[in-house]
Specification:
- There is one protein chain.
- Among the domains are: 69 residues, no CATH class; 40 residues, no CATH class; 136 residues, no CATH class.
- The chain is built from ten helices and 19 strands.
- The strands form five sheets. A six-stranded mixed β-sheet has the order 12-15-16-17-19-18, with helices on both faces.
- Helix 2 packs across helix 7, helix 3 packs antiparallel against helix 5 and helix 5 packs across helix 7.
- The radius of gyration is 26 Å and the shape is globular.
- The N and C termini lie far apart (75 Å).
């Protein structure tokens, strides 16, 4: 029987742990971003404080759940929008019968699968190569001569097979199987996942690595699969699985809220501004830039707008609460460094919560202004996206100012 540990994001909780349980948590503490401190005066009692990693993990006799401040349904709603542009309300993940996060994911995947499969399994053409005794498709003369010499049959062929064994179905099946490996699933959730795998019985089971989950492009023929494929990608990209000698050592579903907030803000701004990732770039898509002339102090802003090779906007997204507080000095200094290095008249800080409107800080002695805005992630998705539109207008104003000053300097 597993020991349950229920934690909340950025909140300390005290639990009694055996030596093996403590060792298991220490081994996963880095991936969990979990602080572990010995309870003073209590033998075997420890204080556990998670940071921005939330979700569920099962490891060596422990079942660890970390509740996000915004709640699991809202977390999944934001994650689906970020990964696949799915505008799903948090109510669509609110299953009363669900006991755990894996349960919620299992019920959601089953509901989406039933809706997608109701029109029949999606089929597509796959190019196959095989040696057959009857000719179909295209004869591969080169391979036939190389492998068969003068033997006429079987013939080396390449042909297109119309089949249900396509990428979209493979991803859904892989997600159902990945969830099914978690021991903290209710019997009802297991039945829901079993229905999916039985329908996809003739589909190949593939194992997708977290950082190499493929994307699928949708059109009128496969649009009804968008929801279920989006959920499958979410599960495959955030699920944890570790095995040794055939035994499952760790399994779960984890989300880094710092990464999710940055990716959500970037995706939502690209949508509302109607630009691509080559124009509004994140810290991974930016060219190498530095604060100093010698290139010894690299900088990587979360957001930057580029007109060709010219930056016209810079910003940063911070998963922090601004309620009843001013912007952190260190965050403002960092944004000022970005604006200075890119020779821009200002920049924008976006916090994860708090603040009724946009605040402006005019820097002394130099002509630069720093804007601060906030998104309350606990609000319904539609309201968050409306707030993103207002932030988008602030970005356009900063870009207009940057381009105007650049023209004035060139005149």
């Amino acid at each position: 029987m597993k020991t349950e540990i229920k934690l909340q994001e950025y909140v300390s909780s005290r639990y009694s742990l055996t030596g093996s349980q403590l060792e298991a948590l220490i081994r996963k503490s880095r991936s969990l971003d979990l602080s572990i401190e010995h309870g003073l005066g209590y033998d075997g009692m420890y204080s556990l404080r998670p940071s921005a990693i939330v979700g569920a993990l099962e490891i060596d006799g422990l079942s660890v759940s970390i509740e996000p401040k915004i709640g699991i349904p809202q977390l999944l709603s934001l994650a689906c929008y970020t990964l696949s542009k799915l505008s799903l309300r948090r109510e669509q993940f609110d299953f009363r019968e669900a006991e755990t996060l894996p349960d919620i994911l299992a019920f959601a995947l089953n509901r989406a699968s039933r809706r997608a499969f109701s029109r029949g399994l999606l089929h597509g053409y796959l190019s196959e190569e095989d040696a057959l005794h009857t000719v179909r498709g295209r004869i591969l003369f080169g391979k036939h001569v190389q492998r068969r010499f003068s033997i006429p049959l079987p013939v080396e062929l390449r042909f297109d097979e119309f089949t249900e064994d396509i990428l979209a179905n493979r991803m859904v099946k892989a997600a159902a199987v990945r969830l099914g490996r978690m021991t903290r699933l209710s019997s009802e959730a297991r039945r829901e996942l079993g229905w999916i795998t039985s329908v996809l019985e003739n589909v190949s089971l593939r194992d997708y690595r977290r950082l190499r989950v493929p994307e699928i492009h949708f059109d009128r023929l496969n649009e009804h699969y968008r929801h279920v494929v989006g959920l499958a990608r979410l599960i495959l990209m955030h699920s944890e699985f570790e095995s040794a000698r055939g035994d499952v050592r760790a399994s779960g579903f984890l989300v880094n809220m710092n990464d999710l907030f940055q990716e959500f803000v970037t995706q939502a701004l690209r949508e509302t501004l109607g630009v691509s990732d080559r124009i509004l770039r994140d810290d991974k898509g930016i060219d190498k830039i530095s604060l100093d002339r010698d290139g010894r102090v690299p900088i990587e802003p979360d957001l930057s707008w580029w007109d060709g090779d010219k930056p016209t906007f810079v910003g940063d997204a911070k998963y922090k609460d601004l309620t009843d507080r001013r912007a952190r000095n260190a965050d403002l200094f960092q944004l000022l460094a970005y604006a200075t290095a890119l020779n821009l008249p200002g920049g924008l800080l976006i916090y994860a919560q708090g603040g009724a409107g946009t605040k402006t800080y005019q820097v002394r002695h130099i002509d630069r202004r720093l804007l601060v805005a906030a998104l309350d992630l606990s609000e319904p998705l539609d309201e968050i996206l409306q707030r993103v539109k207002k932030i988008g207008r602030s970005i356009e104003e900063l870009r207009d100012e940057a381009r105007r000053k650049r023209l004035e300097m060139a005149a």
